[in-house]
Each structure stands twice: as C-alpha cells, then as structure tokens.
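In response to the reviewer comment on reproducibility (Comment 2.3), we provide here a single inverse folding case reported in full, input and output, so that an independent group could reproduce the run without further information from us. The structure tokens appear first.
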C-alpha cells in the first residue's frame, strides 16, 4: 500500500512518517494495492483546544474510505483516525463477504428447488 503524508502548518518529519506507517500496518495487511493519503494540519486559532487535525483517505478497489479527527496531540489524532478507518475497512470486508455468501447460497437454493 502506498502512503502519502502531507502537512499544512505542520512539518512532516521522518519520525512522524514512521509513526503513520506503524499505525497503518494492520490496515496495510488487510488492503492490497490501496493508496492512503494522510493530511496533517494545525489550526492557527489558539482558542481551538483540539488544534491538530488529521484527514485520511483510503482509495481501494471499488470504494474510497475517509476518516477525520482532531486532538490536542498530533499522534493522538493519527491514532484516532487509524481506529476509525480500521472499523470502516472491517465493515467493508464483512459486507463483501456476506454478499459473496448470499450469492453462493442463492444459487444453491435455486438448484435445490429444481431438484425437488
């Protein structure tokens, strides 16, 4: 999976890129051939308590998943987004599996109906 990190008002260091790679390793194992875009930003307004905003877009075959979160710490915002995106990937895989099973069972039901 290709991971692209971009920052606005936030320097994207190699340490930060490594943190993103580690957090998204599980999703990378589940999704083959996807492109993950990570947009990191810091709000300039000091009155906003959760200044760091992370927006993640995962382009997969057949669909695009998005997660957005903010926190007081940039790494915490990345972790929150990873959890949200992980839930979405899991739900997407379950939907595909159920559709595949229903399709297989539908064909089996028709064949059994013809036999009786």
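Designed residues, in position order:
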């Amino acid at each position: 999976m290709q991971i692209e990190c971009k920052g606005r008002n936030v320097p994207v260091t190699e340490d930060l890129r490594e943190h993103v790679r580690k957090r998204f390793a599980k999703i990378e194992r589940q999704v083959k051939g996807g492109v993950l875009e990570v947009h990191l930003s810091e709000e300039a307004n000091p009155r906003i308590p959760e200044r760091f905003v992370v927006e993640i877009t995962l382009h997969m075959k057949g669909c695009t998943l998005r997660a957005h979160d903010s926190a007081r710490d940039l790494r915490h915002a990345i972790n929150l987004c990873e959890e949200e995106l992980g839930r979405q990937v899991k739900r997407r895989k379950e939907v595909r599996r159920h559709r595949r099973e229903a399709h297989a069972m539908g064909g089996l039901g028709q064949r059994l109906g013809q036999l009786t």
